[in-house]
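Justification of computing resources. Each target in the renewal requires a structure prediction run like the one illustrated here; the chain below, 135 residues long, is used simply to show the kind of job we budget for.
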Amino acid sequence: MLHKGPLTNILLGKKTIESRFTKNKCLPHTKIKVDDIILLKESSGPIRGKVQVSKVLFFSNLNPKKVNTLFSQYPQIKADPNFVLKKGDSKFATLIFLKKVQPLKKPIYINKKDRRAWVILDSPTQQSLGLSSLS
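Resulting structure tokens:
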């Protein structure tokens, strides 16, 4: 799930790295890999596009200085200063380099009720949600 601003920037090609900074090790840390397909779902909204992973970097044992270094080293994250400040106490980071951005001509609404920001879809789950054609 992505907030509307970052999602729009990905779909326009302005944001080429999606980042996940967390205090605890959670998805997609160490689970995502090159050539995976990511469905881009707007927070409280529809799936608006898909992208492919071109490269992934994982970081752990972070501290505020290391977090700031990552944001400086990878400006393609396109993070605003408040986001950088908010994520300063993160212990883990996943940087996902994006390629083959494809906005959907017609957004797809799904009935997702949990609060997970990241979900791995297996084939049966994709089929049950009507998303088989997107992979």
